[in-house]
Amino acid sequence: MPTTWVMTCAYAPSGSMICAGGLDNKCSVFTLSQDEDASQRKKTVATHTSYLSGCTFAHSDQQILTASGDCTCALWDVESAQIIQSFHGHERDVMAIDLCPSEAATFVSGSSDQTARIWDLRNGDCVQQFEGHAADINSVRYYPSGEAFATGSDDGSCRLFDVRAEREIAAYGKDGLLFGVNAVDFSISGRLLFGGYNDYSVNIWDTLKCDRVGILYGHENRVSHLRVSPDGTALCTASWDQTIRIWA
Asked: pLDDT band at 2, cuts 50/70/90?
């Protein structure tokens, strides 16, 4: 990578490539084949005018969705490295994106403007906007059914928004919990919500009762990212303490 600060990365659905980017303002694709020369395995697909905060392959190896500090998201063609669609509307940095698991044409974004928005990949339109946080939204993650999504914010709370009702339906936090949330993800059933916090912990919330049902300690700096394994049996966390931990 041309930058030492990589902020986002993702595997292609085929597992043959990864995309990554950060303070270089670019999203680069790397093929994982060892048969090619190293210099030939990298390709720049996307270029923003500010840092890259999120990237993910859009349901295939052929397209990549990116989010940036330039207040926009964009859909790119991997082969031609050309933009297919851009998404304008956020008033500050876009911090996170997530593709809807049940509707291939939509995705959600979270921004420093304290809003989350749902977009139509086909025409670039913002089709829904959600408010409720009092600070930057750092993470967004769809509920397994795709009918709701969770957010994590610098205001110290996680929130659950119902897409069909177009409103917030739950908030997760405590009076003494003042540290920002950097990452959220659901258990495979959706009953639990995991949040990675700036106080070095992972809080586990019951999504129905809004109660905290567990806390994971072990990191020695802020938890910057987390993800539940596809089979739901483990949780992976990444931290500014330069470690990755697996919890099972």
From this structure: low
